[in-house]
Amino acid sequence: MSLGEVPNAQRLRALAGAIDERAGVPSRRAGRHQRRAGRRHSRARPWWIALGVVGAVIVLIVAGGAGYLYYLNSRIHRVEVHNLSSQATTGADAGTQNILMIGSTSRCALKVQNAAYGLCSAGVNGINGDVIMILHLNPATRALSILSIPRDLFLPNARSGPDGGYKIDAALYQGQSQLIKVIRQDFGIGIQHSVELNFDTFANVVNALGGINMYFPMPVFDAYSGLNIPRAGCLHLDGYHALQVVRARHLQYRPASVKTGVHTYWPYELQSDLGRINRDHEFLRVLASTVSKQGLGNPVTDLRLVNSVAGQLEFDNAFTTSDMVHLLLTFHSAKINGAPQLTIPVSVGPNVSYVYGGYPKGEIEFPSLVPDMHAIDQFLQISPTTNTLTGRPLPAPSSVTVSVVNGSGVANQAAATLNSLVALGFRGAGTGNTPVLATQLETLVEYASPATIGAAEAVAHSMTGAVTIMQAPTTNGAQVTVVTGTQFAVNQPASTATHTTTHTTTHPTTPSTTASSAAAAAAARAGFQPPSISNPTLAPWDPRACPLGMPVASVP
After folding, report:
1. Which of 17, 67, 201, 432 is the Cys-Cys partner for 312 at CB 3.0 to 4.6 Å?
2. CA dist., res. 296 & res. 458, Å (int)
C-alpha cells in the first residue's frame, strides 16, 4: 500500500496533534525539535518493535476511530531525556533522524523477578546497555539503515566525571541521557529519539506475535543465557526462548565432528558480543517477516501486540504521538528486511581484564578508526567528506589548528605526531604531556564544543588505528587536541599534485598503506585482534530463518 492509500492520513495527523496538545506535549510537526546539544541524527534499537507498535496504532485508529489513539497515548511511558539533538534542516542529512533503541539489563526494573535472568534481591542489580542500536530514517527516500555499537567498546568518557573510562554499555548506569551524549560526542551521531526496553518487554512482544520460528543448523548451548538446543532443526520459540537466543554471547556449538552431547567438549564461538550482534540482526529480520506475515492490518494481532508493549517501553518525553503517526505514515511500506544492518568495527583485546587509571574494566574492545568512520558514513548515507553531525563539508586542514599531548609516555611522540599532522596541512599549536593511564591506550582526537567536531573529524580522517574522537577541553588554544595512545599512525602526505587534488576534491586524504600497517602492527604487538567487519555473514552454527517447507518442532 502506498502512502497515498493510507486511509484518513490527514485526519490521523490532525488527531495526533490534538492529543499531544491535550497532554501538554508540544507538537513536533510545527516548531519542533527544541532540543539541547549538537544537531542531527537519531538511532534505533529494538527498532522493529517500536515501528511495529506505531504501525499497530495506525491500523487501529483507521479501524476503530479516535478512541483507541487516546487510549494508547495514556499507556505510553515517557521519561525525561536530555542531550537529544535537533533534526537537521540543512546539509547532507537534512530531514533525517536517528532513533536510539536500548536493551537494558536491569533486573530490578522487572515487574516480576525471574531466577533465569538473575535476581535483583541476590545482587544482580547492574544497569547496562545490553543492546545498543540506532535506526536512521530518511523520509525523502523512505530508506532505513541500522547501526549496532558493541557493548564492550571501551571509551574514556563512557560515564561522566573524572573517572569516566568504561565500556560503552556502562553509560546506561547514568541514564539514557548519558548514553545519548556519548554517542553524539564520540561517533558524531545525533539522536532525536530514544526507546528503552527490558527482558520482559522483549519476551512479551514475541509472545504477542504467537512466537517465531528459527532454524538451528547445529546444536548450540550458552550456559549464561540458558540457550540449549540439543539438535538441529526448525524450532518454534516463545518469548522466553527467543530471549535466550538474542542474549547468547558465550555460545558453544556442536559440529558434525563432535559426537558427544556433553557441552564441555563443544567448541566456543570466539566472537562473543560481535557474534551475538550478528545473530540479533538476523533475529530482527525473522521478527519483521513474522509481523509481515501476520499483517498489521489484523486488528486482533494489532491489539494484542500494542497492549503487550505500550505500557512497558520507555520513550523519550519529546517523542510525541504526532511523531509516531508521522513515522508510520511515512515508513509503513519500507522494506525492513532489505535495510542495511551494520556494526561498528572493533579490535577485540586480550582475554584479560583491562586496567585503566588503576582500576580493572573487564575484557574490552578498542575502536578501529578507518573502518569505523566508513561504517558510520554508510549508515548515515553520507560521503567521507561530510561532517557527520551537521551534514556540512569538513573543513580544509589549513583552517584547523592542532595541538598534541603525549598520553603514552613514548619519548618525543607528541612532537613527532604534530610534525606529521603539519606535513598534511594542519596548523600546529603546541605540544604537552599528560599522565599515562594504561599500558595500552586509545588515541583521542579531542574538540571543545559541537561547533568544532568537524575539525576533529578532519584530523581523525588523517590517522589510522585505535583512534576515537571525544569532546573535551583542548590545549594551547587549538581547535583540536590529539592525546596520543599506543596503537595509531598518521598518514603520510601525498605527492604535491595528489595532495592538492585531495584537499580540493576528495578531502580528507586516503590512509596510506604505511600508516595502516604501522597501526595494525602496534595493535598486534598489544595482543589485539584485527578489526572486525561491519557487515559479517552468519556463522555456520548461527540460527536463521527457517527454510520454506521445513517442519517446525517445539523447543526440546
Report:
1. 201
2. 45
